[in-house]
Amino acid sequence: MQTITNSTLLYDPRDPAVMADPFPAYRRLQTEDPVHWSPALKSWVITRYDDVKAVLLHDAMSVNKLDAFYQSLPADDAARMRDIIHYLKLWVAFQDPPDHTRMRMIMRKAFMASTYNNMEGAITGIVTQLLNDLDGNSEIDFIADYALLVPAYVIMDLLGLPRAQLRDIKKWADDMAVFIGGARNADDKYQRAESGCRNMADCFRKLINKTRQQGGEGFLPDLINAEFEGDSLNDDELIACCILVLFAGHETTTNLIGNSLLTLLRNPDSFSEFKSATEFNSTACEELMRYDGPSNGIVRSVTRDHELAGKTLRAGDRIYAMLNAANRDPIAFSNPDTIDLQRRPNRHLVFGTGIHSCLGVQLARQEGRIALREFVQRFPSATLITDKPPTWQDAMVPRGTKTLPINLN
Ligand code: HEM
Q1: Domain assignment of residue 96, given as a range
Q2: Which end of the chain has fewer CB atoms surrounding its CB within 10 Å, N or C?
Q3: Total number of domains constituting the chain
Q4: Residue 73 lies inside a defined structural domain of this protein
């Protein structure tokens, strides 16, 4: 094995080979430098399961990465970024306690209400319609023609957005994603993100006003009416929540469905097993997301100097806690690089852990399971197109392919 003299050699997230398959780099980091300082990212990169969990559970870690960033911007840029920073600061995902606790407790009410918990029929209807549309095609892009559309329609239905707005919503979400996902090679990312956020906020402001006037049942009325200890969300907080839910429920689930199918098509034995074993379908889906999950990692910043696995993390340092690395840690999973569709227990960290763990986990699981099961049942002979390999997203946090060309027959 090559001797490491320069720590940057261990992990270069900009390398297209690493983007396509980061797992060998993760394993080297776990073995050689599990709490790794990356000069390229000016951040710590944490790869072992126990250390990733420790980061997510530690009270000296903050999700508020916006204040320092905003203060570091030149005045002109800061003025141009005003809206996106305003709404992102209201995201429960970017708030620390006590603000986080208040907002999460209110939001949870809507996630416990009946609309959110009765989406199975709606998801199956959406999936069936999309599969009907695919019938008769021989070659498709699984991402654009299916994996992107399922969660987009589900989350739009959940929020009460008309499906005709899909194209706009997708464009705004993509514009915001270059900022939030930490795209490395996009020059105009701040301008795009600001404009995407403004459009999205206008759209939700109108929808919230209309819902307040007309009342009715659904997730948005549930969110508007949600109360905890007599407190509810104001209009800007509601807009921020809607943007977050749309965002969180959109790209992640697309990547979940896309990565899972790619894994199955690259592993014919697992594909055959998946097709024939419907009774452990949900166990199988958990394993597919452990094997190649939809988020590479989660970002935190250190609020107080402390030690992690012998290294000193200083207040202000940025941390990438790599979920996908943790989920392949040999100390936590036996044969981590083998797909075992019956793996139990499977304590993967795909949905995070601790106070910020995913609020939409139930919907995400349900969507992933139904979307994959129905697709595979309808097109059991699907194969990859060998001369059109998938292209991977240029992003540090989301993990998914931009395209996934497949043959249906
Ligand atoms: C496959 C799909 C999904 C994955 C992999 C996923 C993953 C995650 C992860 C890892 C976190 C924790 C982030 C952190 O600790 O910083 C999170 C938070 C969150 N997720 Fe999801 N998510 C998915 C789908 C959804 C859906 C469908 C919704 C909404 C309907 C949703 C709503 C949220 C919210 C609101 C938070 C913030 C919770 C908080 O900060 O307290 N997610 N998600």
Answers
A1: 7-407
A2: N
A3: 1
A4: yes
